[in-house]
Amino acid sequence: MRTFTENTLNKFAWEGLWVLVFGVKKLDEEEYQKFSEKYDSIWVKKHKGKEDDLLKLYDKMEQGLKYIGCTAIEDKL
């Protein structure tokens, strides 16, 4: 399945299409609360590395997602 998916995504990208991959991960209440508290604490601060801190938090949350599908569209602009 992984090889098929990777080949499909590579084909879409090679054709110059915008690719969107869908994934899901079940969180328990504690995991969600920790994420939410970290997010809120970063979001309200005004500091130079705010965007990088948010990207790191998102990256951590996106680990372990279960693949559920992908799609691609052509951008003619």
Order of strands, widest sheet: 1-2
Largest β-sheet summary: 2 strands, antiparallel
Helix content: 40-55%
E-strand count: 2
Order of helices and strands: HEHHE
What is the 3D form? flat
Distance between the termini: 33 Å
Mean pLDDT: 91
How many DSSP helices? 3
**Radius of gyration from the CA trace?**
17 Å
- Low-confidence runs (pLDDT<50, min 5 residues)? none
Class by alpha and beta content: alpha+beta
Approximately how much beta-strand content do the residues carry?
A: 15-25%
Question: What does this 3D model show about the protein?
Answer:
α2 packs antiparallel against α3. A two-stranded antiparallel ribbon has the order 1-2. The radius of gyration is 17 Å and the shape is flat. 53% of the residues lie in helices and 19% in strands. It has helices at 2-14, 29-44, 50-61, and strands at 18-24, 66-73. With 77 residues, it is of the alpha+beta class. It has 3 helices and 2 strands.
Report a brief summary of the structure:
This protein is α+β, with helices and mostly antiparallel strands and 77 residues long.
